[in-house]
Write a structure and sequence with these properties.
111 residues; mainly beta; four-stranded antiparallel β-sheet; 8 strands; 4% helix
Length: 111
């Protein structure tokens, strides 16, 4: 499995400022900051057309004072995407390719 973290978070740190799943709109929005000292969002990755969402907490003793970070992003198989952070693993079945915003590097193609 190819790790796509650098593709989706190019020119941005893996530190998460916001990670919100909207069940009504079937979207997940990941916002990351440029560095751990900044709280201003720099890059968004938007997952739309979510057919299924599952989340597993992998570190329930994580320090709430620490900033969560993206550890890996990859396709497991066609239309199944895994987003892993320091604290959780999220598995998404997607109708659409994730979109990256606030950058000059568009992402194309869909699996």
């Amino acid at each position: 499995m190819e790790d796509l973290t650098n593709r989706y978070l190019a020119s941005c740190s893996p530190y998460i400022s916001s990670l919100v799943y909207d069940i009504g709109n079937r979207t997940l929005v990941l916002e990351c900051v440029p560095n751990p000292n900044s709280l201003k969002p720099h890059t968004k990755v938007i997952f739309t057309g979510i057919r299924s969402y599952s989340e597993e907490i992998i570190d329930d003793e994580y320090d709430d004072m620490c900033m969560d970070g993206v550890v890996g992003m990859h396709w497991i198989r066609d239309h199944i995407f895994c987003l892993r952070t320091d604290t959780k693993e999220i598995i998404l079945e997607l109708e659409n390719e994730p979109r990256r915003l606030c950058t000059a590097y568009p992402i194309q193609g869909f699996r």
